[in-house]
Amino acid sequence: MSNGGKISTDGGQGLGQNPFAALSAAGLPPKTGDRKPDTGVSRPESGNRKPDTGGAAKPVKNRGRVDIRRETGGRGGKTVTVADGFVGIGEPEKDQLAKKIRSACGCGGTVKDGAIVIQGDQRETVARILGEAGFKAVFAGG
User: Can you tell me the distance from the alpha carbon of 94 to that of 18, in angstroms, rounded to the nearest whole number?
Assistant: First the structure.
């Protein structure tokens, strides 16, 4: 090895051919980026907009009851907050809620066996965030 055992990182030769050259965009919908698809409904012009409601968000429909409890058993004396009893939502949405709760509480947490588990006694913060998401948060246990 004349270069002292080092591997060259200059890129070497090109591929020689583009593996995607034979593909075409014919038959695919046009790229829309972050825009919502056009539904054919005309949108009001800037002068015809409805007045602002003062920043008040529309009330979110009730998405069901969620029990929030504090647990220490089986965790080496550590306290955790458990939100359980979700109906009609899947794991991806629970993961998003858990991420939002973790960032608001500034602590760790996970989704385990269909329940959101947050480290520490964070019942009030968890109840607030779940309420904002449309769930009826109920404190369970002592």
Answer: 41
